[in-house]
Amino acid sequence: MATNVDQPxxxxxxxxxxxxxxxxxxxxxxxxALKNLYERTAAKLYGICLRVVGDEAEAQDVLQDTFxxxxxxxxxxxxxxxxxxxxxxxxxxxxxxDRVRARRAPAxxxxxxxxxxxxxxxxxxxxxxxEDAARLKNCLDELDERARSMIRTxxxxxxxxxxxxxxxxxxxxxxxxxxxxGLMRLRGCLER
Amino acid sequence: xxxxxxxxxxxxxxAEHALDMLAGDERDEARKAEASDRTFAGExxxxxxxxxxxxxxxxxVSPSSELWNRIEAATDSxxxxxxxxxxxxxxxxxxxxxxxxxxxxxxxGLVIIRxxxxxxxxxxxxxxxxxxxMLGDSDKQMKVVASWDPAGRQLxxxxxxxxxxxxxxxxxxxxxxxxxxxxxxxxxxxxxKMHMRLADTLAQLLKQGATIAISVEPPGGSPSGKxxxxxxxxxxxxxx
Lengths: 192, 240
Fold this sequence. Notes:
The complex is a heterodimer of chains A (192) and B (240).
Chain A: H1 6-15, H2 18-27, H3 31-53, H4 56-73, H5 84-104, H6 132-142, H7 145-157, H8 161-168, H9 172-190
Chain B: H1 2-19, H2 24-36, H3 38-51, H4 67-74, H5 84-89, H6 101-114, E1 131-136, E2 142-149, E3 154-161, E4 170-176, E5 183-188, E6 193-197, H7 200-203, E7 211-217, E8 231-236, E9 238-239
Helix pairs in contact in B: 1-3, 2-3
């Protein structure tokens, strides 16, 4: 799963600062910057979309959504808070999960479709620190196998509590307490 | 004691919300809290940042080379005149769609289907007959023909008449299966004709009687995966 081969590419995307320079240009409506950004990040972001939705055609739709959102919301990116690739990855995952949820949602007609507000500004808010990667890895390792695996499934498959409970064949309340305990232990470890 | 408990619950909610694993009311509650409570929003943002290192495990995969063209078309805000007002005006009238359009649908649909395929060769096995939907608003300002070829999973959307365009909105295409929920088929680039090859999961929803609709959404499409804006045109799929 976690391959070392991946590391150099990510490190490169994180460190060269080029993406951080491109996003403000995209925010100002620079189409060439959008294309450059796409060329540099599409494969990574498509990998994320594909991992979450699990279907190539849908993943491409989600990637399209992601970049059209970047086109209009690039101004929300704050380089002080997170690297550009992290911000873009979070955005791609959000979009992918919305897609997965829409697919799994119970039947409702267009008439009943509720007025859902568009992305709240905070939904694209990401606060990252340099030591996060190493810490998260260590702290996830401290969790028991089941909690760790459920948290990873929630992250990578966009699986909600009801979905996880269904997959594991346990009551919703059991799933919730299992994961909540895991998350609180994780938090305790991360803040140590 | 109970404050501690509440605090812990709140912290757990922040992590769960960052993972986006909440459903229903709890998800709504967390979204509201994130919008209104800065401390909570900060916790959520921090969790997003921490968890983001998991993205390192995801391998990069190259998307299809034509995807950039779709994105370029979808983000092209320079084309078309601003005309959201016209779209708004026809909002809500979609149910009143003219019955007389059916005949027109059939004739227009046949024209579309006879046009040569420009996309990749269709998949070999035939899986049912081609279907056509005529989408029109009651003012007949805008007409859209959707023709569906189940064999090749190809959906062709042809716009006849005025397709109002506005850079601050997107048109999103939906299929609503009989008795089912709307499912997005993606946003529409401002072109007169487009070909889409649908994923299997979506393709199986395009049955006779299913409704095809176009709604006005924020740029890039509905953020929720469900229609949020007015439906400008709709029509049901029928045999060509």
